[in-house]
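ok so for the tutorial part 2 we go from a plain amino acid sequence to predicted structure tokens. step 1 is just haveing the sequence, like this:
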Amino acid sequence: QVQLVESGGGLVQAGGSLRLSCEASGRTFSRDVMAWFRQAPGKEREFVAGISGSGGSTYYADSVKGRFTISRDNAKNTAYLQMNSLKPEDTAVYFCAARFGQGIMLSRAWYDYWGQGTQVTVSS
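step 2 — the prediction. this is what the tokens look like for a chain of 124 residues:
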């Protein structure tokens, strides 16, 4: 079955770093756009970062640009989100998503597969 599984979440102090992983299975995702979204309690799920199938193109939300880096290793069918200089406002459940297509889309509606989410908590 098709599955995306996130890992790497946890508790970190402000200014610290964390790396999230998203391992895909059930099909090959090397030609799929992969992205990270996040959702804090009571807030809308928002786009964080996306990466093209080849890894040649990336796009970031303004709130994380310069601090977060998305990457992928297609040999491992895995995407990553390196998060540096974390702030309390980064606290959220982070979701991995994938879509069959070339464009990095910002809307949740464009994505075909979703992970279960991993909690990231940044303390002051």
